[in-house]
Amino acid sequence: MSSDPNREKLLSLIECVFPTTPVPAEDRLLAIDGDEAREDTRLFIGRKWSELDADFVHQNGWALSWFTAEAFCYYLPAFLKAMITTPNFSNYYFVSTYSYLEPAESHTLTAFRKKRIEALTELQRDFLIAWLEWMIDKSSTEPIYQKDLVNARNVLIEGSWKNW
Predict the structure, then answer these.
(1) Are 139 and 151 a contacting pair, CB within 8 Å?
(2) Cβ distance 25 to 41 under 8 Å?
(3) I want to staple 93 with a disulfide (CB 3.0 to 4.6 A). Which of 18, 50, 61, 122 is the partner?
(4) 6-30: per-residue pLDDT in tens?
């Protein structure tokens, strides 16, 4: 297996860019209340993102949909790290990670996505751009995803999310 210096760089940077504390309190985890949302996110309660391995993320990928902006920003690195360590373009959370960086058909959903991007620090958005660029390179055999990844990256680079 050949070494990928960009992969290793992303893995080392993620720990620096995304703090592991404070963990969002249980009452600050869900943006939408409901049985499905509570079930999908219950295993995240009180856990540091850095403790969540790729298998956990793969099994609990739907949680990303329900998180508040605070919880999304906090747990996002676990999802990014899982994609760096085990890239799988068919995972729901992979598609939802970059799709959350584009406007939606619904004004309410677009506002929700904008709030999540606004909650990221500039350094975290820069990391997300680097991750997207790495994923664009990795997706060369999956052209169906490349266009969407490029669009998501451009939203962050151009700052067009500020105008949503």
Answers:
(1) no
(2) no
(3) 61
(4) 999 999 999 999 998 899 999 999 8
b/e map 67-77, b = 16+ CB within 10 Å: bbbbbbbbbbb
Task: Tell me how far apart the alpha carbons of residues 102 and 62 are, in angstroms, rounded to a whole number.
Answer: 18
In a domain, 164, yes or no: no
**DSSP 3-state percent helix, strand, coil across the chain (nearest 5):** 70, 0, 25
Query: Do the Cβ atoms of 148 and 135 come closer than 8 Å?
Result: no
Q: Are 78 and 50 in contact (CB under 8 A)?
A: yes
Residue 35 in domain: yes
Give the position of tokens 């990795």. Answer: 138
The domain in which residue 148 lies consists of 5-159
- Return phi, psi of residue 156, to 5°: -75, -45
47 CB contacts (<8 Å, ≥6 apart)?
A: 23
Q: How far apart are CA 127 and CA 147, in angstroms?
A: 19
140 within some domain: yes
How many domains does the structure of the chain reveal? Answer: 1
Report which secondary-structure segment, H or E, holds 123: helix 122-138
Q: How far apart are CA 94 and CA 96, in angstroms?
A: 5
Averaged pLDDT, 88-104: 70
Residue 69 placed within a domain: yes
